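Shipment paperwork, digital attachment
Item: protein structure file
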Amino acid sequence: MSAFLLRRLAISIPTLLIVTMLVFGLQQLLPGDPALALSGEERDPAVLAAIRAEYHLDRPVPVQYAFWLGGALHGDLGISLKSNQPVTELVLAKLPVTAELAGFAMLVALAIGIPAGVISAVKRDSVWDHIANVIGLSGLSIPHFWLGIMLILLVSVQWGLLPPGGFVSPADSLTDNLAGMIMPALVLGGGVAAMMMRHTRSAMLGTLRSDYVRTARAKGLLERTVVIKHALRNALIPIVTLGALALGELLSGAVLTESVFNIPGFGKLVVDAVFNRDYAVVQGVVLFTASAYILLNLCADMAYCLINPRMRG
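Attachment content:
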């Protein structure tokens, strides 16, 4: 198990390095000059020169990358060109908001997707199977922004059950915080649940036809034991992979959902940074997101070892 994880870690480190190169390099292709955005309307040449010198914008791109990477390795992602705040502080300030939303959305996806996929596979070609497939296809097809707007109109405006948007810190009011997270989590988690349901169904159909499942049934084990202990456990590997990737995507910030529900997470931070040509913030958020993806994949590899003992060698 240790050797397997060490191999995966050895692959992850150069992958992250390549990601930093791509993030920094592609950022340079964006139009506009951040020094002009900071210099004011007069655009005094002396002010422009001072700004470029302060942020190393007058250096060659490889030198700028070296400065940025060196700072990132020490936890310094630079200074926001717009707010003049450390990017690390901005990212850490938005992280709890997006992490909470992603966590609730993932709980919704797991609570709906896996049971629906298992039932759909066990009851193949039945009414339950058709209902699960229709719901899954609907979850994949309906745009998040449209579903969010419809929920706001129905649940908030018509029924007055939940707030239409905004974010309340759990430290201020746990009840208001949970109430504000229900609809965004349903919108985000519904799409992930649909994907998870289809992957679970496909994996379960394969394992239910396996010899060890037929042997377990021949021994007279209860159908529930056969499905959960034997079939589902061996079908979890692709589901774990999907869950890790989906959680990484949720952590990267659901721009449309956060915009619809006015949630100040990573999505809003990135959008504002792009419009303001705040390169340091964009680079910091993308670097954090890439690191989260790699870390979640390592966690998925650890889960593989726990689920399938054959991978521990």
